[in-house]
């Protein structure tokens, strides 16, 4: 069973990729690390928009509420692509990015029960990190744009192991 620091170390190792990782993959992994977004959220540029104060808004998936990210928390390449309205990770769509990382970047299977986390480990790390920083489950639910506490409870109560 991995604790938060071990999960964070795994995520940092993944963001470094390997010697053959294209910089776009590393940029995508870094974005997952700093935002806790889903892979399909970062590759679907039409879900993003710039607000007047230069922060970015992410339109929700799965009936969630929108999320807002501070400008300084977003990597420059991704921020500029949102402003220009182009996909920052061409030729990677969400499936190709997942496949590439599964084949070349994620060093071993990370499991919750019988489910392989793959790149969803970043979302687990992000939510567990918010709790470690003192946010309540209710505050995390609001920050992540969830409509109820069940999802946050699932993330916080999950046990991650190396498969």
Describe the protein in words.
- The protein is mainly alpha-helical.
- The chain has one domain (4-162): Intergrase catalytic core (hpI Integrase, Chain A, Orthogonal Bundle).
- Helix content is 48%, strand content 10%.
- The chain contains 8 helices and 6 strands, in the order αααβββααββαααβ.
- Helix 1 packs across helix 6 (121-132) and helix 2 (23-35) packs parallel to helix 6 (121-132).
Tell me the overall shape.
globular
Task: State the separation between the terminal residues, measured CA to CA.
Answer: 10 Å
CATH superfamily: Intergrase catalytic core
CATH level-3 fold name: hpI Integrase, Chain A
**Strand residues, percent:** 5-15%
CATH architecture: Orthogonal Bundle
CATH class category label: Mainly Alpha
Radius of gyration: 15 Å
Alpha-beta content class:
mainly alpha
On the 0 to 100 scale, the average pLDDT is: 89
Descriptive key words:
163 residues, mainly alpha, hpI Integrase, Chain A, three-stranded antiparallel beta sheet
Structure at a glance:
Helix content is 48%, strand content 10%. With 163 residues, it is mainly alpha-helical. The protein has a single domain (4-162), classed as Intergrase catalytic core (hpI Integrase, Chain A).
């Amino acid at each position: 069973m991995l604790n938060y620091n071990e999960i964070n170390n795994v995520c940092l190792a993944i963001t470094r990729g390997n010697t053959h990782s294209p910089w776009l993959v590393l940029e995508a992994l870094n974005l997952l690390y700093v935002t806790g977004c889903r892979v399909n959220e970062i590759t679907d540029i039409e879900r993003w928009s710039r607000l007047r104060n230069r922060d970015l808004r992410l339109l929700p998936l799965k009936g969630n509420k929108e999320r807002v990210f501070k400008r300084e928390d977003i990597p420059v390449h991704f921020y500029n692509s949102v402003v220009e309205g182009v996909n920052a990770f061409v030729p990677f769509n969400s499936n190709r990015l997942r496949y590439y990382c599964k084949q070349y970047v994620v060093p071993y299977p990370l499991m919750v029960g019988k489910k392989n986390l793959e790149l969803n480990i970043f979302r687990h790390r992000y939510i567990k990190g918010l709790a470690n920083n003192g946010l309540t489950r209710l505050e995390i639910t609001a920050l992540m744009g969830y409509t109820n506490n069940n999802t946050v409870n699932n993330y916080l109560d999950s046990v991650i192991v190396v498969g």
